[in-house]
Amino acid sequence: MSEPATNPAATSFSAPTISLPLGLEVLRTYSGALFCFEIFFGGLVWILVASSNVPVPLLQGWVMFVSVTAFFLSSTYLLLLLTGLADRIRIDWNFTDVFYHFIALLFYFAAFVLEAAATAANGGAVIAPLPNSTGTVMCIHYPRGNVFTVLTANQYSINVVATIFAFVVTLCYGCSLVMAFKRWRI
């Protein structure tokens, strides 16, 4: 008897390696919870920076790019795990997880630093109407230092909160990277 013919497609690709559970079970893991935190707080960073009318576009443009891109990529990655499609795509998901979280951590750390710099460059500058004026004449009290931004009190408050949430997202991506690296090495 002759040997049965093997399917060449089945022998040329290895089975996908993934340590995370698929379906709703992924939400019961620490990694799944961190994915949800990354998406939630990343969305808040996106919304907060956009609502501040981006007063420093050179710095905050990068923050917007990173927050929007990471939001959609993390959402897509979580959806692949939730729907079970990750099992059908034949790649090393453990390495992909490490690589994605490393790049996301790097980009979000840079975004956090730039958002903090845009906020700190305000340095106490206050825009206030002159006393006994109609409000059309504004007095700007310059802070100490060579570089400064002029933010309204509302923009400054929004940027402070966006900086805090960008730091939280950076921590979430860092924790996800550590856990992904442990799964990859096992």
What does this structure look like?
With 186 residues, the protein is mainly α. It contains five helices and two strands; from the N terminus they run ααααββα. Strands 1-2 form a two-stranded antiparallel sheet. It is elongated, with a radius of gyration of 23 Å. The protein starts with 7 loop residues before the first helix and ends with a helix. The mean pLDDT is 80.
Low-confidence stretches: none
Coarse shape: elongated
Strand order of the largest sheet: 1-2
What is the terminal-to-terminal distance?
42 Å
**SSE run:** HHHHEEH
Name a few traits of the molecule.
62% helix; 186 residues; elongated; mainly alpha
Brief rundown of the structure:
This protein is mainly α.
Secondary-structure blueprint of this entry?
Layout (H helix, E strand, L loop, with lengths): L7 H5 L17 H22 L5 H27 L9 H28 L5 E4 L8 E4 L11 H33 L1
Antiparallel strand pairs: 1-2
